[in-house]
Structure to design on (897 residues):
């Protein structure tokens, strides 16, 4: 099944169809509350990738899932010491190096 | 004395800019808007050691990429009217992300001074910052501050003044981040190309321009291409971007962002020491309850409910006081001036109109205070967090939440800033939908209408009905959004990036300033637009006056009544002529006003009669006054009462005939064909037409319509009392009108803003048409169902 992000990665040379890194990473959206890990790559459209990086989601940064909103979406994270929320499908554009580890 | 320095305060949202701004400028501040947009612009002045300083509070931003309206404004200000110094307020407890903006400012070549704010919070979290080291690494002065307590602000100003003296080039040379050989090579080539083209950069640093070109920044590209003849430069920039993309397998802007964070991490490692704490911050502990899956939504609803109780119950005594104040002002003017057009203009047009709106000022102020508390504590962001999933289901967005909130999600907002708030949204469709449904929210201008009708028809359930109306308006806005997104504006949804700032105890000063600014805007609106509209509407309901032929039957009827009355034998004894009757009427008037010196001393007969008349109309037996009145006086008094009633009925009919004849009346009557099924009569229609200009005018117009219809002016009851006793007015009608006012045509100002924000007249017209049709259908449904089920018709 093609990953939903591959299309949006058209502007992202590292993530073109053949070299798509998505299969090598773990989606941040798969992390449960209380789990953490480090960022491997950000997918998605260029504006979103850039904004996320400006907000501190750069490669190698540790991210922890704090909780899900009452309706399981959006998700609250701690990154670089502050709290940020993203929708589940955006979080699935953030690829982590490893499956979530208990914090 | 030296020239005035301009200092801009920049920083991430919630870093403490406004707190520092307020502390520096005190009361010497002015709130306006940035040119062409309704993002708040705060400016103020202060004098430090004889140096006059002009301070500008820039909107809070995470970056200067021109991602959002705030970023565009902040960047434009720094680029186009460079301040002498930029004070970048950073949150010391959240240093890493805050420094990203600082680095961008440095790269722009601005003279930056860093205010290391919230230093107390950082210390509390065991974050040890080596300030001199940080300053050395960044190459700019760094001053620790505590904005809340005002600590370090003197030093901050002193440092800023000193920085303004330093040569600009010093700062430019400190543009210190080196991006590695490949990037630097391309930057050098572009800078060379810039120099060769000898284009005027308007004082911008050429390195910064080169950086922006490598990043493919549209703002700078547009700016330069406007100058013309730079095709070579743009070709070079494209080539450099392609080259770097090839090497790094990612776009240059991503590489540069990564590198900036790399630089920040390096600087942090060398200057910040974190004492080991696994301690969970208090804020997070609070959130285990407040955004808890089960408790969170319950608390959210309770908070919203509390806001209502606070707004309505809390402000009640003050609202009453204001109402009484305007009422006595009206009476004062009425007594001081002779009857005529001018008095009518002042009392019915100006005082009733503006007073009706200004009377609600305390309520509006309480609501703004409640919203300020939600914003300043940080709870507002939690509301968006918890409700996003719901909103998205309707084709909206997290940022829509903010826009809808501001528009009146908590009742008492305004669609104008709400629609402006949508500029933070990048997705055009979601933004447009938000713009289109924002006017359906319960804005502050609708509150007076609700308050009036709820006060009159649901006096025991004020808070409950308001609470219900909030849900209804959300429901209507969401329904409209869903329908619009499914039809005229279909498509997928855009990203949602929302920070949850730590909970903070708001300062009284901050809350009051916030509340005052917004309330003042409301007052200004009431004082200007509403005044003009009130006068126009008064004229609409005054002219043309009744023609003599049309007035004749009424006058004749009065004459007959008078003649018959005077023929009564009992009356004849006390009031032998029409002059005597007139004398007696004036006597009674003086009594009511308390200007008759000694009760009936000059005319004992009048005194006797008046006493009996008054005790009769008060429902007392004449004996209760002590002395048993003579039977013929009792008889005369009874005849007098009957005469008065008959006469005032005729006069009411005449007034009504006059009103119906005026321009306003004619419009209202014509509209009855359309609004008949809703139960609105022509006076309500006139009020609704007035509401096209501004919703609060509905109250003003109803006030005018009903005070003009009033015959016995010195018995003026409040408007809500009037409506309650007006035949035809039922709780159902009141509720139907509330629904109609909630939904129908956005006010004039909002339409102007919709036009500007959507860029198309098409959407403006669409907004007018769809809201009014929607309002009509909903009101029709309410009224029909209510009538059939006989709810609230008694
Ligand atoms: N503890 C502490 N709180 C502060 C400090 N400066 C500001 N605050 C609080 O932080 C919150 C956000 O401040 P504000 O000035 O509105 O931030 P802005 O968004 O940058 O304008 C307010 O509740 C302030 O009272 C500080 O130095 N220490
Ligand atoms: Mg602020």
């Amino acid at each position: 099944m093609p990953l939903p992000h591959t299309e949006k990665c058209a502007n992202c040379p590292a993530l073109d169809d053949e070299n798509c890194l998505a299969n090598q990473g773990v989606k941040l959206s798969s992390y449960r509350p209380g789990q953490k890990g480090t960022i491997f790559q950000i997918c998605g459209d260029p504006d979103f990738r850039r904004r996320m990086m400006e907000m501190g989601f750069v490669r190698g940064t540790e991210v922890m899932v704090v909780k899900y909103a009452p309706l399981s979406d959006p998700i609250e994270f701690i990154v670089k010491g502050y709290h940020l929320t993203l929708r589940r499908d955006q979080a699935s554009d953030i690829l982590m190096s490893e499956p979530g580890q208990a914090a | 004395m030296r020239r005035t320095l301009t200092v801009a305060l920049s920083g991430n949202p919630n870093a403490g800019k406004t707190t520092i701004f307020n502390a520096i400028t005190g009361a010497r501040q002015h709130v306006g808007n940035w040119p062409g947009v309704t993002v708040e612009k705060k400016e103020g002045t202060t004098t430090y050691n004889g140096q006059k300083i002009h301070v500008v509070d820039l909107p809070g931003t995470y970056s200067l990429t021109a991602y959002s309206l705030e970023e565009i404004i902040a960047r434009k200000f720094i680029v186009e009217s460079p301040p002498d110094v930029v004070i970048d307020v950073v949150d010391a407890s959240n240093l890493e992300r805050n420094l990203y903006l600082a680095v961008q400012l440095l790269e722009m070549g601005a003279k930056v001074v860093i205010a290391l704010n919230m230093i107390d919070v950082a210390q509390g979290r065991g974050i040890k910052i080596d300030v001199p080291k940080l300053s050395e690494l960044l190459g700019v002065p760094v001053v620790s501050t505590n904005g809340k307590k005002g600590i370090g602000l003197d030093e901050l100003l002193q440092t800023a003044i000193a920085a303004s003296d330093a040569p600009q080039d010093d700062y430019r040379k400190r543009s210190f981040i080196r991006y590695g050989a490949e990037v630097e090579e391309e930057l050098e080539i572009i800078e060379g190309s810039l120099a060769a083209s000898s284009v005027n950069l308007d004082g911008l640093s050429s390195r910064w321009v080169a950086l922006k070109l490598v990043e493919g920044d549209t703002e700078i590209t547009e700016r330069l291409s406007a100058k013309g003849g730079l095709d070579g430069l743009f070709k070079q920039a494209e080539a450099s971007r392609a080259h770097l993309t090839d090497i790094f397998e990612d776009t240059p802007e991503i590489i540069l962002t990564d590198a900036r964070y790399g630089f920040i991490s390096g600087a942090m490692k060398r200057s910040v020491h974190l004492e080991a704490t696994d301690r969970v911050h208090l804020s997070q502990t609070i959130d285990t309850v407040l955004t808890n899956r089960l408790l969170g939504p319950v608390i959210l609803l309770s908070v919203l409910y509390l806001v209502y109780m606070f707004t309505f119950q809390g402000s009640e005594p003050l609202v009453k006081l204001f109402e009484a104040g305007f009422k006595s002002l009206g009476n004062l003017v009425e007594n001081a001036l002779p009857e005529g057009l001018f008095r009518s203009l002042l009392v019915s047009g100006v005082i009733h109109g503006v007073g009706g709106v200004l009377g609600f000022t305390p309520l509006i102020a309480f609501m703004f205070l409640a919203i300020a508390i939600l914003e300043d504590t940080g709870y507002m962001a939690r509301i968006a967090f918890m409700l996003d999933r719901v909103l998205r289901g309707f084709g909206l967005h997290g940022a829509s939440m903010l826009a809808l909130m501001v528009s009146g999600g908590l009742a008492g907002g305004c669609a104008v800033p709400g629609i402006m708030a949508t500029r933070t949204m990048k997705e055009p469709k979601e933004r447009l939908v938000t713009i289109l449904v924002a006017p359906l929210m319960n804005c502050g201008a609708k509150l007076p209408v609700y308050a009036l009708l709820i006060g009159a028809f649901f006096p025991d359930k004020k808070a409950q009905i308001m609470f219900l109306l909030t849900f209804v308006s959300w429901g209507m806005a969401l329904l409209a959004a869903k329908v619009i997104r499914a039809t005229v504006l279909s498509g997928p949804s855009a990203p949602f990036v929302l920070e949850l700032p730590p909970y903070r105890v708001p300062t009284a000063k901050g809350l009051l300033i916030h509340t005052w600014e917004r309330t003042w805007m409301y007052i200004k609106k009431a004082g200007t637009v509403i005044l003009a509209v009130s006068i126009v509407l008064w004229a609409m309901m005054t002219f043309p006056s009744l023609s003599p032929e049309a007035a004749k039957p009424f006058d004749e009827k009065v004459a007959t009544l008078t003649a018959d009355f005077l023929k009564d034998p009992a009356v004849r004894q006390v009031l032998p002529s029409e002059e005597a009757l007139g004398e007696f009427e004036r006597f009674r008037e003086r009594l009511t006003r308390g200007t008759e010196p000694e009760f009936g001393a000059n005319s004992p007969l009048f005194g006797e009669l008046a006493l009996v008349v008054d005790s009769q109309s008060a429902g007392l037996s004449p004996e209760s006054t002590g002395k048993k009145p003579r039977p013929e006086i009792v008889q005369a008094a009874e005849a007098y009462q009957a005469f008065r009633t008959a006469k005032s009925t005729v006069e009411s009919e005449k007034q009504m005939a006059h009103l119906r004849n005026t321009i306003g009346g004619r419009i209202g009557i014509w509209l009855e064909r359309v609004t008949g099924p809703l139960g609105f009569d022509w006076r309500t229609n006139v009020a609704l037409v007035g509401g096209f200009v501004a919703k609060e005018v509905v109250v003003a117009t109803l006030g005018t319509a009903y005070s003009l219809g009033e015959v016995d002016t010195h018995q003026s009851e409040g408007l809500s009392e009037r409506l309650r006793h007006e035949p035809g007015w039922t709780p159902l009608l009141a509720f139907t009108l509330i629904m109609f006012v909630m939904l129908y045509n956005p006010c004039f100002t909002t339409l102007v803003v919709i036009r500007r924000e959507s860029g198309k007249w098409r959407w403006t017209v669409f907004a007018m048409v769809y809201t009014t049709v929607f309002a009509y259908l909903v009101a029709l449904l309410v009224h029909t169902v209510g009538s059939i089920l006989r709810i609230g018709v008694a």
Remarks:
- Chain A touches chain B through 39 residues (CB under 8 Å).
